[in-house]
């Protein structure tokens, strides 16, 4: 056996519910005991389109949260934006539909052993896995602040019940249609300067993750980010979802965001080289 | 009982189903989902002399019943591969076919020399057809003379022990003549087919979507091309073992390639959709062979070539 994805398995899950929440769908899947091995930050790879689909690749979705005690046993929640063909198909699945999935995949957010002041930053529906993370951090005695941003209010995902786990929830939209006008990253330098944050957890578009990494550079704040690169397999064999990451010695190599991520230490990602190729190996 | 065993040169395999190079990394990632000992062999990702970053992202575009990839042979380099990846596979008791790729005839020979002294390898795949290289002139398999020189250099370096399987490209006018050339130069078998050179244009940027601009098409979309290539080459050289690949996703597809002339079948892109696909395909193949009255894979190899007057087993 190998140590990669050692808790992963394939499962046919049924759709418990599928509700529209603003521009997103909240999809609840019955996955039984699989929930015991799912951690905040992990993702699920789902086969889309049915048996005769021309779409041959699974789609990767962040696991928003899991619950052991749902009405149907263990359940997994996904927040899906019906954007591409695959996610539209998933969002069209009714209660009772069977879903072929592989989970849990990838790395998880690191949970501190001591209570810390945590800032959770989400962009768009990237906020989804942060609510599950907030619950875990809260149970560890952490102070949890959550800042969510999007271009417009309709793209903010912030469920009422999720607010229970956070001390402060602030919302930023670029058009000012919800919360404060501006980018979610704008208040972060002030928080760091005032010593109000120890760890930042982020999930959202790559430019947002990069901006946070640049803000925390030079400070003691740890930045754990869930990266996003297009994947074919989700299990580490196709080598398509790579991004450049530094090692301790400053050597850059192309790491797979599926098995070396999605959660990575933002300080090690070579953000200026994303989408490019580092210098050839010596 | 169906005898699934097959051979390539002097190498014996308990099953005709192999992973495809570049679609199983070095095996570790699949081991969570399948028992590597249950399949014919793990064909490892083509390795070069030095560590290599590969091409920039985006590296992938899904297309109808297929995908275009542009990885560019990212890998650890042969020394790290032989020190870390290969010993792990051997320790798992997996049968291993090591795939090598080079930029020059000399690089292939150097790689072959290093592989020669490594224990636990069943065969060597010489990938002379990767489409994702900076210089399309590097695709040796598009040039009969260059193909021949690579295989000749590898054969001379390797000696006569380890079977050589030359991986060829379908992107040629006369595949049979290239196949004959590499067999003359010392290849014991042929791997057919590598991906098909292709391109996707992004309608948002209105530029080629892939970082490397061009890529290789794989998946069910190319299966009929693979069947044609295998059929043509088997017809010309019925005694040369062929490792067939190209869009195999079911037992039915594997049997189709075997009937065309493949002695072994690699599962590539289907593993992306289901990391345990190769096991499902193996089980389906067993049933399909039995349903047609075959008692071994060997009986079915090239069966589509039998004379018109000769009936099928069950007719």
UniProtKB/TrEMBL annotation, chain A:
* Keyword Zinc-finger annotated: no
* Parts of the chain that traverse the membrane: none
Q: Name one GO biological process term.
A: pyrimidine nucleotide biosynthetic process
What are the protein's UniProt keywords? 2Fe-2S, Electron transport, FAD, Flavoprotein, Iron, Iron-sulfur, Metal-binding, Transport
The protein's required cofactor(s) are namely: [2Fe-2S] cluster
Please report the stretch or stretches of sequence annotated as the Dihydroorotate dehydrogenase electron transfer subunit iron-sulphur cluster binding domain: 228-267
UniProt xrefs under Gene3D superfamilies: Dihydroorotate dehydrogenase, electron transfer subunit (2.10.240.10), Nucleotide-binding domain of ferredoxin-NADP reductase (FNR) module (3.40.50.80), Translation factors (2.40.30.10)
The molecular function terms of the Gene Ontology recorded here are: 2 iron, 2 sulfur cluster binding; flavin adenine dinucleotide binding; metal ion binding
Q: Which family does it belong to?
A: Belongs to the PyrK family.
User: What is the name of this protein?
Assistant: Unannotated protein
- Organism the protein comes from: freshwater metagenome
């Amino acid at each position: 056996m190998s140590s990669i994805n050692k808790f992963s398995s394939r499962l046919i899950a049924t759709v418990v519910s599928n509700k529209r929440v603003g521009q997103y769908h909240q999809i609840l899947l019955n996955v039984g005991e699989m929930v015991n091995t799912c951690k905040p930050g992990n993702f699920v790879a789902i086969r889309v389109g049915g048996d005769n689909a021309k779409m041959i690749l699974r789609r990767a979705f962040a696991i928003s949260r899991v619950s052991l005690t749902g009405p149907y046993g263990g359940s997994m929640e996904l927040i899906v934006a019906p954007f591409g063909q695959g996610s539209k198909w998933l969002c069209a699945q009714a209660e009772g539909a069977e879903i072929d999935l592989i989970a849990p995949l990838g790395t998880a957010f690191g949970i501190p052993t001591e209570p810390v002041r945590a800032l959770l930053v989400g962009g768009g529906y990237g906020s989804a896995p942060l609510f599950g993370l907030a619950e875990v951090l809260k149970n560890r005695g952490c102070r949890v602040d959550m800042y969510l941003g999007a271009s417009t209010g309709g793209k903010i995902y912030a469920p009422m019940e999720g607010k229970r786990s956070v001390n402060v929830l602030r919302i930023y939209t670029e058009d000012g249609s919800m919360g404060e006008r501006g980018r979610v990253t704008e208040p972060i330098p002030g928080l760091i300067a005032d010593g109000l944050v120890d760890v930042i957890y982020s999930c959202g578009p790559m430019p947002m993750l990069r901006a946070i990494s640049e803000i925390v550079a030079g400070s003691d704040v740890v930045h754990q980010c869930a990266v996003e690169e297009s994947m074919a397999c989700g299990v580490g064999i196709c080598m398509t979802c790579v991004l450049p990451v530094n090692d301790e010695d400053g050597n850059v190599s192309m790491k797979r965001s599926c098995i070396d991520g999605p959660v990575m230490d933002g300080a090690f990602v070579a953000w200026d080289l994303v989408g490019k190729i580092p210098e050839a190996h010596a | 009982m169906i005898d699934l065993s097959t051979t390539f040169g002097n190498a014996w395999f308990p099953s005709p189903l192999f992973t495809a190079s570049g679609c199983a990394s070095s095996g570790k990632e699949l081991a969570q989902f399948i028992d590597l000992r249950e399949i014919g062999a793990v064909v490892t990702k083509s390795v070069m002399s030095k560590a290599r970053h590969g091409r920039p992202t985006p590296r992938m575009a899904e297309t109808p019943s297929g995908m275009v990839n542009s990885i560019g042979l990212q890998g650890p380099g042969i020394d790290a591969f032989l020190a870390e990846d290969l010993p792990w596979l051997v320790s798992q008791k997996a049968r291993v076919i090591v795939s090598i790729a080079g930029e020059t005839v000399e690089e292939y020979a150097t790689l072959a020399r290093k592989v020669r002294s490594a224990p636990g390898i069943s065969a060597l795949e010489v990938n002379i057809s990767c489409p994702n290289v900076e210089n399309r002139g590097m695709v040796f398999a598009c040039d009969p003379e260059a193909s021949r020189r690579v295989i000749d250099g590898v054969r001379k370096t390797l000696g006569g022990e380890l079977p050589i399987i030359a991986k060829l490209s379908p992107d040629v006018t006369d595949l049979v003549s290239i196949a004959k050339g590499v067999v003359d130069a010392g290849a014991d078998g042929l791997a057919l087919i590598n991906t098909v050179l292709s391109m996707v244009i992004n309608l948002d940027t209105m530029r080629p979507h892939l970082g490397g601009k061009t890529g290789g098409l794989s998946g069910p979309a190319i299966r009929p091309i693979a069947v044609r290539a295998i059929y043509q080459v088997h017809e010309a050289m019925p005694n040369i073992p062929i490792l067939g690949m190209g869009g195999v996703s079911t037992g039915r597809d594997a049997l189709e390639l075997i009937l065309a002339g493949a002695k072994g079948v690699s599962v590539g892109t289907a593993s992306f959709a289901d990391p345990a696909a190769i096991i499902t395909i193996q089980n389906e193949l067993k049933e399909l062979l039995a349903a047609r009255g075959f008692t071994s894979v060997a009986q079915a190899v090239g069966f589509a070539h039998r004379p018109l007057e000769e009936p099928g087993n069950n007719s």
